[in-house]
């Protein structure tokens, strides 16, 4: 007798991952897919996937998706949402995409209060292209382009892009979370759910920054990568709600 699959679809495809062992992208993909199912959003969702490690995100989500040029995710999302305000629009971006080449698009779309949601994966390094220093790389962090560690006098300081946009009047919800432990993963799901609901309610721009591991480029095993998030990366980028205008008139 063939048993019926009891698991919901979750708008995810049953495929083999291309992400490195220990990478946090797969966890966040699963959370997003679950919420699209649980909140009945999947059938009207348009996802925008970036240049970077998640460039192949359309291989994992069973929803309509559009590929964006490097850094232009929120520009594409703006066009979609303005043309079709009835759709649920999601831009999924990494730190090199959102806070480097896409800085202008990020800042101005947030400042305008565009009514879509951004999932921002921060692993403090350029993951796909070889582990170069990113805007979010922390001081003294060794990368392929900062082999002696990031020096503020030469490289500047880590860019807290989510903290910056959280101050804008058009931003209705902003939170920083991580996927370093089961407890933090549960918090991440709640944060993304809140951001999704913010868009559904038409309140404006919502963003969730997720501190995520990159064991390959950090040259650590998975367990040590999770500890590094908790003990080092989260010290530079503290977890928590940065702005929440839900319930305000």
Topology readout:
Layout (H helix, E strand, L loop, with lengths): L24 H14 L6 E5 L14 E4 L5 H11 L4 E7 H7 L1 H10 L4 E6 L29 H4 L5 H6 L4 E8 L3 H19 L4 E7 L3 H4 L3 H15 L3 E5 L5
Parallel strand pairs: 1-2, 1-3, 3-4, 4-6, 5-6
Antiparallel strand pairs: 5-7
3D structure, described in words:
The chain is an alpha/beta fold and 249 residues long. The chain has a single domain, classed as Rossmann fold, CATH 3.40.50.970. The protein has nine helices and seven strands; from the N terminus they run H-E-E-H-E-H-H-E-H-H-E-H-E-H-H-E. It has a seven-stranded mixed sheet, with helices on both faces. Helix 1 crosses helix 7. The radius of gyration is 17 Å and the shape is globular. 49% of the residues are buried.
Task: Characterize the overall form.
Answer: globular
- Counted up, domains total 1
Number of helices: 9
Distance between the termini: 56 Å
Please bin the fraction of helical residues.
Answer: 25-40%
Q: Output the structural class.
A: alpha/beta
Proportion in β-strands: 15-25%
Mean pLDDT: 93
How many beta strands in the DSSP annotation?
A: 7
CATH hierarchy class name = Alpha Beta
The arrangement of helices and strands along the chain is HEEHEHHEHHEHEHHE
Under CATH, the topology is which?
Answer: Rossmann fold
Labels describing this entry:
single chain, 7-stranded mixed beta sheet, disordered N terminus, 249 residues, Rossmann fold
